[in-house]
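Subject: for your reference before the review

Hello V.,

The reviewers asked for a structural picture of the protein, and I figured it would be easier to keep everything in one thread rather than splitting it across files. Below is the amino acid sequence we used in the manuscript, unchanged from the supplementary table.
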Amino acid sequence: MARSSFLPRLGLLPATRLSFTTSGYAISAWAPLIPHVKEQIGLSAGELGLTLLAFGAGSMVMMPLAGGLIGRFGCRRLIEIGGVGIAVILPCLGLMRSAVLLGAALFCFGLAMGLLSSARNIHGIATERALGRRLMSGFHGFYSVGCVLGAGTMSILMGLGVPPPAAAAVVGAIIILAIILSAPQITDERTASGPAYAPPRGVVLVIGLLCFVVFMAEGSVLDWSALLLTGHFRLDGARAGLGYVAFATMMTIGRLTGDRLVRRLGDRMMLTWSPALAAVGFVVATLPVHWTLAVAGFAMVGAGAANIVPLLYSAVGRQTVMPANLALTAAGSIGFAGILIGPAAIGFIAQATSLAAAFLVLAAMVAVVSRIAPTVLKSAG
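And here is what came back from the structure prediction:
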């Protein structure tokens, strides 16, 4: 992708941070479009839910293949392709007039997002290696910042009366500009040969399963925390979202400060106590005391979960069982499945018992992560 001479030249670290910010900016810009699309097509809540699965399906198809593509073409080209694809598809989502067309567009959106997410994570590992220090927590913090900026940009533009497809086109232009700025510093390492996909094995498989648990916990807070506050504590709808707000805020702060904590405390201690804090947070959130304590519990979950996946991704980059590009996308695919499967599983558990009991099951699963993850670090090297 050509880069104009009048644009500033970024260093490696700022460019990597920008690539993570761009990824969060791109995915969150879709959320404000959902009500518009639902009304425009006339979808019921159930029909919309089924259609939205197309996005996850596209990402799940691409992520296992992305490692081989990155090995062949390098991160730079695939970040460019994924970013431009998102920038083009995003305005089209606001123009869809049928559920079938929307599903097809969301599937392509998921493909592009899976490509962009995999490539920027592998580039993040390469940046850590090049600079010789832990940086992945901070990178994911910038992803969280991008999520806030993307949803905020769309909401502001649409609030000013800009038609949703036009607002999405503005966001797409900003995404392309960000890619042009960051691309020159994106790693272009390639492997001469290798498979397009390799199933996870050994320590990579274990890391993938740990990521599955953490992503399952994160997705469940997004989908079920408001329902816990309204059902368990009879909180009104206007304040029911405070649990997720507290969770997301503490996760962003935790990631932006995570690299300093890792340098001070070390990987093993962080992966011992961070999941433990998240597990305690789930327990606190279910205590039948007061809704403010539940919100504090979700804040603890966000603070505890913030740095687990970034540290596990860094461990993937250091292991020698599989090539890093194939290992990260394999482990990432298992982890991403937790976002798709986890909330549904919580729903089934809640139906059979209660939502509070379902969150306690999550607490137990996350507590297991605190026991296994430090051992995984030792195996990864």
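For the response letter, the relevant points are probably these. The CA atoms of residues 157 and 167 lie 6 Å apart. The chain has a mean pLDDT of 87.

Happy to draft the paragraph if you're swamped.

O.
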